[in-house]
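Dear H.,

Thanks for agreeing to be a second pair of eyes. The structure we're designing against is below in token form, covering all 421 positions.
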């Protein structure tokens, strides 16, 4: 059943928001249980539809999943029923591609559907495929599926990624931990989720050094073992609520948020006149100046400004006292929220990969359509400050990445209500 959200604008967010576990760490971390037959216990797993979709895929492959409580799972993989990730699973979530590396490494073969409806098609995973080939896998594309075979196992080598890729780095890390010899990933992703992911693999017995830097070295081992692992807080969820606090001129403590995971983002907010103070138990965000100053940004791989906060940041700049440029360098087609924000009164023009945002005094409520996860949350934020009522349609995008969003925002004084359509 399709759902929509009604937002009555005009609130001032005040209070505390507890940040959930990071979706983009939980996804590869759960997949890593394919690498061992022993049990792995995961804590602080966020309750999201993306996680459910991934668990469905892992169960299909043959994992045993035991849910201990809402956020704790035990996974074990004695053997597999299938080394295939069918289209129906992958089309729901692009991160399903993460099973390619570990299946090829431990079970010597993997068949993974290409992500359907992906605007960038094969190019979106070409770096994963190329790296596996360099490690000795035979890879072909047949009937919309990637087929990888590594009958003699994978062999470590030097792999230079021409573009930094988060899931590409994670996929090849999982291939390399069980490969023969040493693999070096050059121009590897440095995101905190990738660093924490390496920590999980090392806890499982892998030999990885350089995590969190652009060169990661992996010495292959024969076998990995079980462990217990806690997912770090979701920096993108935290950044999203930081902007919600800022635009509503509120004051919110982002509980558990780690300042150092969002340094460049918080510095940008500070320049825009939003205070972001590191506390013992999180980060306190409030408006320092009476107006929001324009600050230009460009998205970049970590430690740069995260693409996953670009849409939300656009809403902040839509209210600034001047004009700011927002350049999207990671994804070609990530301005889909802009036409909806324009319908709410924002003054934004797009010039190639740059959006020029001129602040307006206020936004007005409208019916808007969510097009992807971060675009949809940007519309929710816009709704919080718009005059009147905003209806965000196609809410399922939001549930992929924001746990209990109505509850978290309503507890701070927002007025959000979900309804079936
Ligand atoms: N790319 C290629 N070929 C590849 C891989 C990537 O051309 O084989 C390109 C992509 O097209 C893109 C760029 O490289 O232009 C970077 O993409 P990356 O591979 O880093 O993205 P991803 O791993 O698919 C993860 C997050 C995204 C986040 C990006 C960038 C997960 C599960 N997803 O995606 O998160 O936007 O990194 O930081 O970790 C989200 O949470 O809303 C989300 C989209």
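And this is the sequence the design step returned. I haven't edited it by hand at all.
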């Amino acid at each position: 059943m399709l759902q929509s959200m009604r937002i009555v604008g005009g609130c001032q967010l005040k209070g505390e928001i507890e940040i959930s576990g990071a979706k983009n760490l939980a996804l590869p971390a759960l997949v890593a249980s394919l690498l061992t037959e022993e049990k792995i216990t995961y804590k602080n797993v966020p309750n999201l539809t993306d996680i459910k979709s991934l668990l469905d895929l892992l169960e299909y492959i043959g994992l045993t999943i035991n849910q201990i409580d809402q956020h704790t799972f035990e996974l074990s993989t004695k053997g597999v029923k299938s080394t295939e990730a069918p289209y129906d699973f992958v089309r729901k979530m692009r991160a399903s591609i993460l099973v390619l590396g570990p299946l090829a490494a431990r079970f010597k073969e993997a068949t993974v559907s290409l992500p359907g409806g992906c605007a960038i098609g094969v190019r979106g995973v070409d770096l994963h495929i190329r790296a596996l080939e360099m490690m000795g896998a035979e890879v072909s594309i047949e009937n919309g599926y990637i087929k990888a075979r590594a009958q003699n196992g994978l062999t470590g080598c030097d792999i230079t990624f021409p573009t930094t890729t988060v899931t590409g780095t994670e996929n090849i890390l999982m291939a390399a931990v069980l490969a023969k010899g040493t693999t070096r990933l050059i121009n590897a992703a440095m995101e905190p989720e990738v660093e924490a992911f390496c920590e999980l693999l090392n806890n499982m017995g892998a030999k990885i050094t350089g995590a969190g830097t652009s060169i990661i070295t992996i010495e292959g081992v024969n076998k990995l073992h079980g462990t217990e692992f806690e997912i770090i807080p979701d920096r993108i969820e935290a950044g999203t609520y930081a902007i919600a606090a800022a635009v509503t001129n509120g004051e919110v403590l982002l509980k558990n948020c780690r300042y150092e995971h969002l340094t460049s983002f918080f510095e940008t907010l500070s320049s825009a006149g939003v205070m972001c103070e590191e506390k013992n138990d999180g980060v306190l965000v409030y408006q320092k100046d009476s107006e929001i100053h324009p600050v230009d940004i460009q998205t970049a791989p970590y430690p740069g400004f995260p693409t996953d906060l670009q849409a939300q940041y656009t809403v902040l700049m839509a209210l600034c006292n001047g004009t700011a440029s927002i350049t999207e360098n990671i994804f070609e087609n990530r301005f889909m929220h802009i036409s909806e924000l324009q319908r709410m009164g924002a003054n934004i023009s797009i010039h190639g990969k740059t959006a020029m945002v001129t602040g307006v005094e206020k936004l007005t409520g409208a019916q808007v359509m969510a097009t992807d996860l971060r675009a949809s949350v940007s519309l929710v934020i816009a709704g919080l400050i718009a005059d009147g009522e905003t209806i965000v349609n196609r809410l399922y995008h939001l549930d992929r990445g924001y746990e209990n969003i109505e509850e978290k925002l309503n507890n701070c004084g927002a007025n959000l209500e979900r309804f079936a359509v």
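Two observations from my side: The longest strand covers residues 3-8. The chain is about 30% helix and 25% strand.

Warmly,
E.
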